[in-house]
Write a structure and sequence with these properties.
Layout lengths: L8 E5 L1 H19 L5 E6 L3 H8 L8 E8 L10 E5 L9 E9 L3 H12 L4 E9 L12 E5 L5 E2 L15 E4 L6
Parallel strand pairs: 2-3, 2-5, 5-6, 6-7
Antiparallel strand pairs: 1-9, 3-4, 8-9
Helix pairs in contact: 1-2
Bound molecules: inosinic acid and magnesium ion.
Length: 181
């Protein structure tokens, strides 16, 4: 998908810049974990593209699971209530987990996912987020690996959507007419 010049989109990070940063993250994760890579838990839908690219930067085989979540109140004010729309296909007790997220905004979704992982008795859990928007944080959450830190703007592309649009933009763009928060 190419952004049409008429659309209200402003490129923040190009496809090439994203690829370079994802490669760096992959190298760091590989160096930190060594031979025993964690199980990737890709949070759907927004992280599907990031998780696919990140996984291909790793030198060894890596297990990938998907967790579908939906935050109530998206588009308005987030309530922090999160619904699991698709669960993991394998037990994760005793495993090392890397949560792969598209963006940490208020932190409420991630806080919920982290408590869910801990309740399932994982050995360790770390977080790799493509984007971090720290100015909007409402709960403190640990983010171990961050692709890019961005200001308080609404972004789309590289997996992130606005009303299910723009996920397949290869670049990350600011949506200049964002939905009401
Ligand atoms: P939270 O506020 O940290 O719980 O983030 C909830 C979810 O809101 C994220 O996982 C994204 O799916 C979505 N989100 C937050 N900010 C943006 C944005 O700028 N663009 C697209 N989706 C966003
Ligand atoms: Mg998300």
């Amino acid at each position: 998908m190419a952004a049409s010049p008429n659309e209200a989109l402003r490129t923040i990070h190009t496809r090439e810049a994203i690829a370079a940063r994802v490669a760096e993250l992959g190298q760091r994760i590989a160096a930190d974990y060594g031979k025993e890579l964690p199980i990737f838990v890709s949070v759907l839908k927004g992280s599907f593209m990031f998780a696919a690219d990140l996984a291909r930067e790793l030198p060894q085989s890596v297990r990938i699971e998907f967790l579908g979540v939906q935050s109530y109140g998206s588009g308005t004010v987030s309530t922090g209530a999160v619904q699991i729309t698709q669960d993991l296909t394998h037990p994760i007790e005793g495993q090392d987990i890397l949560i792969v997220e598209d963006i940490v905004d208020t932190g409420l979704t991630l806080a919920y996912i982290l408590s869910l992982m801990r309740a399932r008795g994982v050995r360790s859990v770390k977080v790799c987020a493509f984007l971090d928007k720290p100015s909007r944080r409402r709960v403190e959450v640990p983010v171990d690996y961050v692709g890019f830190t961005i200001p308080d703007v609404f972004v789309v592309g590289y997996g992130l959507d606005c009303a299910e649009q723009y996920r397949n933009l290869p670049s990350l763009c600011e949506l200049l007419q964002p939905p009401a928060k």
